[in-house]
Design brief:
By secondary structure, this protein is of the alpha+beta class. It has three helices and five strands, in the order αβαββββα. 20% of the residues are buried.
């Protein structure tokens, strides 16, 4: 009963979740590099699919190269834990008008082992997870800015 009452109260105040299933008309410009391709694909998925260049909004993203940092060492001094960090700056435009610009970062830790194949797989998984985190952060901010623009 309490849940039903809460649902009725929320619907009465015209509350609408940010990710309410609406497709957002955002063209994501190509992002350089393999990680850029992955980030662009992830952003397009967040915005409901690929949009044409004549979309209402255009998102331009510059993705920096991944930065790794040692986080833990064995007694012998060998690294056993690392962190990969990605930084992205982006600009959201409506036509020629810049409506938002910002910088986002995401990081993921991974195990660094002596076996080359396992280390590479661990690193690649960490990079992919970081790209998806970055995509979620950017898309949430972009959708928020778009909703601000459209409510004016």
């Amino acid at each position: 009963m309490k849940k039903l009452f809460l649902l009725l109260m929320i619907s009465a105040c015209s509350f609408r979740p940010i990710f309410s299933g609406d497709k957002t008309d955002v063209y994501v410009a190509p992002i350089s590099g393999i990680n850029g391709i992955e980030l662009r694909n992830s952003l397009n998925a967040q915005f409901g699919g690929i949009h044409e260049q004549n979309a209402k909004y255009t998102l331009t993203v510059k993705l920096d190269e991944p930065v790794t940092q040692y986080k833990a060492f064995e007694r012998a001094g060998d690294a056993v834990w690392q962190e990969v960090k990605l930084n992205a700056t982006y600009v959201l435009k409506q036509g020629d008008k810049e409506i938002a610009t910002s910088k986002e970062s995401a990081a993921e830790s991974y195990t660094f082992v002596r076996y080359l194949v396992a280390s590479n797989a661990s690193y690649n998984n960490a990079v992919m997870n970081t790209i998806h985190q970055l995509s979620e952060k950017i898309s949430m901010r972009v959708i928020t800015e778009i909703q601000k623009q459209e409510s004016k």
